[in-house]
Design a protein that fits this description.
single chain, Purple Acid Phosphatase, chain A, domain 2, five-stranded mixed beta sheet, 27% helix, 26% strand
Length: 237
């Protein structure tokens, strides 16, 4: 069984509650995946990172990939794909950008840069956004052709993502896909692709909603999928 979570967002109480819930499971959890957004404009972001870096005896060592908030940290420190944190400022304003700068140290940012973009395990892709970017949000309203496009870019039949913060299961039934390229000169021959049954899973969000965390359990051996809700006592600031 895998435990898959995303969006701790600097909420140490929520993360501890999820770790405790994982220990209470009746089945053995063999792997723990954190699909980004570990930090946020939250004063406990450094505490969360230290906790992830130092699992307690008997706990799983988390396998980590970067998320949207980590990308914003890179931009703030001039280490991202863009020179300025324009996406962050456009969405949340300069005050939030300053708070994020104050919440995540330069040392932590350098450590985050070493994290993966995603994981390809068996026929599963585990990633924060999608194969396009960490900003690409997949949810139940995403058109089927867009879901198929994201899955066709890698050899995976199951895509687990955390960008939306939602828990959902989106199934694409198997079938035939016809594609062709039209240029100014001519149209290329039609190519037919046999698309097997595929699925996109939103794994939930741990830290965004105070007092309530969601995450996902998945067994790659029998394809069992289970969404978990954990209620906890939030820290009072």
């Amino acid at each position: 069984m895998w435990a898959i979570l995303s969006g701790i967002e600097g909420n140490i109480a929520a993360y501890e509650a999820v770790l405790a819930d994982i220990k209470r499971q009746g089945v053995k959890v063999e792997a723990l995946y954190i699909l980004g957004d570990m930090v946020a404009p939250n004063q406990d972001s450094e505490t969360v990172i230290k906790r992830i870096q130092n699992p307690l005896p008997g706990e799983l060592e988390p396998q980590i990939c970067i998320g949207w908030w980590e990308e914003q940290c890179f931009a703030l420190h001039g280490l991202g794909s863009t020179a300025e944190p324009t996406e962050l400022i456009d969405l949340f304003g300069k005050k939030t950008a300053k708070l994020l700068w104050d919440s995540v140290s330069g040392e932590t940012v350098q450590w985050l840069r070493k994290c993966h973009f995603g994981f390809l395990e068996l026929d599963c892709l585990l990633i924060h956004g999608s194969t396009i970017s960490v900003s690409d949000e997949l949810n139940l309203q995403t058109p089927p052709w867009q879901m198929l496009d994201r899955l066709q870019r890698v050899q995976a039949n199951n895509l687990f993502c955390g960008r939306s913060g939602q828990v959902f299961e989106y199934q694409l039934q198997g079938g035939l896909v016809n594609s062709s390229v039209v240029t100014l000169d001519r149209q290329q021959p039609v190519e037919t692709i046999i698309a097997p049954k595929k699925r996109v899973v939103g794994v939930g969000n741990v830290g965004r909603e105070s007092g309530k965390a969601t995450y996902t359990l998945y067994s790659p051996y029998n394809d069992r999928l289970e969404f978990k809700i954990v209620y906890y006592e939030p820290d009072l600031v």
